[in-house]
Design goal:
47% of the residues lie in helices and 16% in strands. It is an alpha/beta fold and 424 residues long. It has 3 domains: 178 residues, Nitrogenase molybdenum iron protein domain (Rossmann fold), CATH 3.40.50; 122 residues, Nitrogenase molybdenum iron protein domain (Rossmann fold, 3-Layer(aba) Sandwich); 91 residues, Rossmann fold. α3 links the parallel β2 and β3. α8 packs parallel to α10 and α11 runs antiparallel to α12. The protein is globular, with a radius of gyration of 22 Å. It starts with a helix and ends with a helix. It binds iron/sulfur cluster. Iron/sulfur cluster binds next to α3.
């Protein structure tokens, strides 16, 4: 154990310093977010301005879309663009014109920056402004960066949602926004619970279509469902909205505390709260009880990937009895994850950023029962005899809310079971 890790062991969780590392990192870029965002926003198209590598990443990660009319594509920057011999803006305008004339169903177009577009300093905000004027009001054009130079894989969603905030219509009425993209079925479950609590004027960012985007003003409040939304939070606060702090809705306890923060903010009675949450709480607790024995006292090590690590560590330690060794996150925004951090009553190493070789050494030395990491690290670690869980699965699988509490625990129990089966 290194010196910094020793210091952490002597502190209470709330006050621990974070071990900050700024070395080589092994994470996907923000383009990955398009894979779930294009399913969520049904009248949007994501046009990546990038290279063949970017196109390959998207196509292999979202291969199923070959069978449907896709809602994302890549405008490939060729060598002459990269060498500055062609006007990339003219070419982009032509691509957009072809796309929009062929696809009248597109109401929102996201121009997505990549490493190559960053390198040649192609100003996509100017392009979005110009194209917005051309296609307004039929199509709204936004831009954000998914470049691996600037973002890790969940930050693509953050950048996308933050780009939407300035376009939200102004309101002087009280309203609540649920912020972060969830599978529709999970979103509907949470919205139903909120409605049953009697909270009115609730909308979701991102809305499923352009006409369903929330309105915003000084009397708006919002609650996050994803912990990686730092830029979106700042953009919403800049427009006057107030954040409701809460632990993230993972597991029975997490979901109850998340709803309780809404109950307190909207003065819902204790009686109503109990009535609304009692049955789903019981279902979630029963689902978790069956899995706890498989996870209890098992040691877990998180490499930094999705920024979901701290809320998940809270869930796995408190609700499943797991022992936390290291909880790594690419970026830690204490304001957003403070409520989860405060609840962790173990003393793991919390690390931010990555120096992958040092972290691999810490991982091997601590011999965890399960290691949560990216695809690139999983295979070599499995070959060394460690049991791994792909971090990206946690983003693609429905894991929020009461009804998914058992599935979430199962995601960690399954690799342990598989490893035990292989040993027999
Ligand atoms: Fe690779 Fe950068 Fe394209 Fe991502 S944006 S696929 S890191 S070149």
């Amino acid at each position: 154990m290194n010196q910094q890790a020793k210091i952490l062991k002597n502190s209470s969780c709330k006050d621990v310093p974070i071990l900050k590392e700024r070395g080589q990192r092994e994470v996907f870029c923000g383009l990955t977010g398009i894979i779930w965002m294009h399913r969520k926003i049904q009248d949007a198209f994501f046009l990546v301005v990038g290279s063949r590598t970017c196109a390959h990443l998207l196509q292999s990660a979202a291969g199923v879309m070959i069978f449907a009319e896709p809602r994302f594509g890549t405008a490939i920057l060729e060598e002459k663009d990269l060498a500055g011999m062609a006007d990339a803006h003219d070419e982009l305008d032509r691509e957009v014109e072809t796309l929009l004339s062929r696809r009248p169903d597109i109401k929102q177009l996201f121009l997505v920056g990549s490493c190559p577009s960053e390198v040649i300093k192609l100003d996509l905000s100017k392009a979005a402004e110009r194209l917005s004027k051309v296609y307004f009001p039929k199509v709204r054009v936004f831009n954000f960066s998914g470049s691996g130079i600037e973002t890790t894989f969940t930050q693509g969603e953050d950048a996308c949602l933050a780009s939407l905030v300035p376009s939200l219509e102004e309101t002087d009425k009280e309203n609540l926004m649920i912020v972060g993209s969830l599978p529709d079925i999970v979103e509907d479950q949470l919205l139903e619970l909120i409605e049953d609590l009697g909270i009115k004027n609730v909308s979701v960012l991102p809305g499923r279509t352009a006409s369903k985007m929330p309105m915003i003003g000084e009397k708006s409040s919002f609650i996050l469902v994803q912990p990686f939304l730092t830029d979106t939070t700042e953009a919403l606060e800049k427009r006057g909205a107030t954040m409701i702090n809460a632990p993230f809705p993972f597991g029975e306890e997490g979901t109850t505390l998340w709803l309780k923060s809404l109950k307190d903010a909207f003065s819902v009675s204790e009686e109503t709260f109990e009535k609304v949450t009692e049955a789903p709480r019981k279902r979630a607790a029963a689902a978790l009880a069956g899995l706890r024995s498989r996870l209890e006292k098992r040691k877990i090590f998180f490499f930094p990937d999705s920024q979901l690590e701290i809320p998940l560590a809270r869930f796995l330690s408190r609700e499943c009895g797991m022992e936390l060794i290291e909880v790594g996150s690419p970026y830690i925004n204490r304001k957003i994850i403070e409520s989860d951090l405060q609840l962790i009553n173990q003393e793991p190493v919390f690390s931010e950023g990555q120096d992958v070789d040092l972290q691999l050494d810490r991982c091997r030395n601590s011999k965890p029962d399960i290691t949560v990491c990216g695809l690139g690290l999983a295979n070599p670690l499995e070959a060394e005899g460690l049991t791994t869980k792909w971090a990206i699965e946690l983003v693609f699988t429905p894991i929020h809310g009461y009804e998914q509490a058992g599935d979430l625990a199962e995601l960690f129990a399954r690799p342990l079971k598989r490893r035990e089966a292989l040993k027999i």
